[in-house]
Amino acid sequence: MNKVLLVGRLTAKPELRYTNGNTAFLRFTVAVNRNFTNSDGKREADFINVVAWRKQAETIAKFFDKGNLIAVEGRLQTGSYDDRDGNKRYTTDVALDNFEFVEGKNSRSQSDDFESSQPSPYDYQNNSVSVENDPFAEYGDSVSIDDNFLD
After folding, report:
1. Residue 61: helix, strand or coil by DSSP?
2. Residue 99, Cα to own-chain centre: how many angstroms?
């Protein structure tokens, strides 16, 4: 089984292109946050390349912009090509099967306005939770999980 599900933000405005046979296609990158922070306490992201074809490519190009949240369903696809210098290059992309709008066209700016006017237990700038609103604060400042737990 080869199945990929992603939810992330577009890293750039998608640019629709066409093959020589006039088939629409789109290559874009989705930044997907990791579920943990690094040793500096910062949340990192993976940047995953996605390829869409035909009507789906046209729809994404028309309705999505840099920073918009998108849900992607597809399959992992590998390939290779020779660059201009004759070097073999390998690629890994998600071949899009389905996608979903996760937020409306203007919801990012509206949600930013809403979030700034609401008290939040989560500090998006510092990736931290305030102790006053953290139900797990009384359990200490770290959690240790044995690696064997995951087996």
Report:
1. helix
2. 12
- The phi, psi pair for 112, rounded to 5°, reads -65, -45
- The whole model's pTM is what? 0.65
Enclosing domain of residue 35? 4-150
Q: Encode pLDDT of 105-144 as tens digits.
A: 555 544 444 333 334 333 334 444 444 444 445 555 544 4
Q: Is 41 left (phi over 0), alpha (psi -120 to 50) or beta?
A: left
Total domains present in the chain: 1
Residue holding tokens 């994404």? Answer: 60
pLDDT score at 10: 96
Contact yes or no for 6/30 (Cβ under 8 A): yes
CATH number at residue 27: 2.40.50.140
Under a CB-based contact definition with an 8 Å cutoff, are residues 76 and 94 in contact? Answer: yes
